[in-house]
C-alpha cells in the first residue's frame, strides 16, 4: 500500500481544503493508498479569521513550527500532496529542498494566490516573494489547477506537467430535484463566508432594487448576521453555514447568484457556488468573470452579467418564463453530472497520483 502525505492549508472546515483534498480521501483509500493529512491551520484559527478577531502571532508561529517538524517525515511517503504552498508568506525553500532530494510532490491550486505576492501592497512582499508560487509550480512533479487562468500561469511559470481538475461536488449529497417556478415569492440565494460577503455588498444597489419588488426575497448562507444592516427594509434571511445543512438550505433557493469583480485574483476563482446551485437544479446568474463563463456555457444553465446584461434584467428574464426557468434547471443538473461531480473527477485524480506515487 502506497503512502501519501497531504499538506492542507486548513482542516475540513476550510472550503478549499475540504473540496480539493478531504473529499477525495475515501476514494483514494479504497484504491489502496494510505493517506495522512497534516493541516496548517485548525478550525479555531479559521473561526477567528472569519470573525475578524486579531490573529495571535504565537498561534501562527506554533502552526508553522508543527508543519516544520512534520517535514522531517516526508521521506517515509511515496508522494507529498501540497495545497498551494507549505508556508504562506515565506520563501519556497522547503519545496526546493524536496525537489533536489527527489521527493515527488504534487501541488494544487484553486485560487490565484500568486497575486497575494506579485500584487501585494507591501513592497517587501513583492520584492521577496513575487515569483514564489512560480518556483513552487516549477519544482512540482505535477501542478493541478482548478481553472484555465491558473493553468496559463502555471505554463508561464515553467511547470513540467499541468492537469486541470475543477472544484466539484459530491453529487450523492445533492438529491435530484425537478425545480419549477414557485407560485408565490421567488427566493434568490447566495452561499459564501464572512470573507466573501464583500462581493454581495459590491452589488448592493442591484439587490435593493430587486427586493423592492415584493415577489422577491433573498437568503444568504454563511454571511455575518449584521450584513442585513446594509439592506434596510429588504426581505433578507441570513442562515449559518455548516457542512451538514448547506445542501438542504440551497435546495430552498429558486435562483442562485455569484457576483465577483473582474479583477486578477477573482479570475482564479473556481465557481464552486455555481456548481452547488446547479447540483440542486437551480438556474444561475453570475458575473462574466473567469471560469464562471465556462461553467454556465458548458450546457447553458443560466445568464452571465456583463455590459449588456444587468442583474435586474437577467434575474427577471429567468423568473418571467416557466420555459426558460425549467430549461436552465434541467441543464444545470446535467452539467454537474457530466463534468462537475466528484464521481467524475476522482478517477482523474487517481490516475494522476498513480503515475507519480
TrEMBL record:
Q: Does the keyword Transferase apply?
A: yes
Q: Which Gene3D superfamilies match?
A: Glycogen Phosphorylase B
**Protein keywords:** Transferase
Residues in a coiled coil are: none
Organism, per UniProt? Photobacterium malacitanum
Q: What is this protein called?
A: Glycosyl transferases group 1
Recorded superkingdom:
Bacteria
Per its record, what are the GO molecular function terms? transferase activity
Which SUPFAM superfamilies does this UniProt record tie to the protein? UDP-Glycosyltransferase/glycogen phosphorylase
Keyword Lipid metabolism assigned: no
Amino acid at each position: 500500500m502506497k503512502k501519501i502525505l497531504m499538506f492542507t492549508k486548513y482542516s475540513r472546515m476550510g472550503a478549499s481544503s475540504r473540496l480539493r483534498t478531504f473529499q477525495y480521501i475515501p476514494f483514494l483509500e479504497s484504491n489502496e493508498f494510505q493517506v495522512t493529512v497534516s493541516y496548517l491551520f485548525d478550525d479555531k484559527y479559521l473561526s477567528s479569521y472569519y470573525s475578524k478577531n486579531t490573529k495571535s502571532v504565537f498561534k501562527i508561529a506554533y502552526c508553522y513550527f508543527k508543519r516544520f517538524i512534520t517535514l522531517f517525515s516526508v521521506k517515509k511517503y511515496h508522494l507529498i500532496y501540497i495545497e498551494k504552498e507549505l508556508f504562506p508568506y515565506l520563501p519556497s525553500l522547503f519545496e526546493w529542498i524536496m525537489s533536489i532530494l527527489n521527493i515527488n510532490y504534487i501541488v494544487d491550486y484553486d485560487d490565484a494566490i500568486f497575486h497575494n505576492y506579485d500584487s501585494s501592497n507591501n513592497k517587501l512582499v513583492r520584492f521577496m516573494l513575487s515569483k514564489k508560487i512560480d518556483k513552487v509550480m516549477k519544482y512540482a512533479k505535477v501542478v493541478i489547477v482548478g481553472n484555465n487562468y491558473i493553468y496559463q500561469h502555471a505554463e508561464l511559470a515553467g511547470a513540467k506537467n499541468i492537469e486541470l481538475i475543477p472544484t466539484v461536488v459530491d453529487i450523492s449529497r445533492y438529491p435530484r430535484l425537478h425545480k419549477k417556478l414557485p407560485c408565490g415569492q421567488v427566493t434568490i440565494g447566495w452561499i459564501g463566508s464572512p470573507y466573501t460577503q464583500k462581493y454581495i455588498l459590491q452589488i448592493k444597489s442591484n439587490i435593493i432594487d430587486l427586493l423592492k419588488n415584493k415577489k422577491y426575497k433573498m437568503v444568504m448562507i454563511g454571511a455575518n448576521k449584521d450584513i442585513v444592516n446594509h439592506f434596510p427594509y429588504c426581505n433578507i434571511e441570513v442562515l449559518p453555514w455548516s457542512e451538514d445543512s448547506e445542501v438542504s438550505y440551497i435546495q430552498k433557493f429558486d435562483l442562485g447568484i455569484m457576483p465577483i469583480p473582474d479583477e486578477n485574483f477573482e479570475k482564479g476563482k473556481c465557481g464552486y457556488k455555481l456548481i452547488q446551485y446547479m447540483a440542486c437544479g437551480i438556474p444561475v446568474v453570475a458575473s462574466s468573470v473567469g471560469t464562471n463563463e465556462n461553467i454556465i456555457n458548458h450546457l447553458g444553465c443560466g445568464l452571465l452579467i456583463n455590459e449588456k446584461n444587468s442583474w435586474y434584467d437577467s434575474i427577471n428574464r429567468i423568473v418571467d418564463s416557466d420555459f426558460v426557468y425549467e430549461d436552465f434547471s434541467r441543464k444545470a443538473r446535467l452539467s454537474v453530472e457530466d463534468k462537475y461531480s466528484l464521481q467524475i473527477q476522482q478517477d482523474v485524480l487517481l490516475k494522476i497520483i498513480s503515475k507519480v506515487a
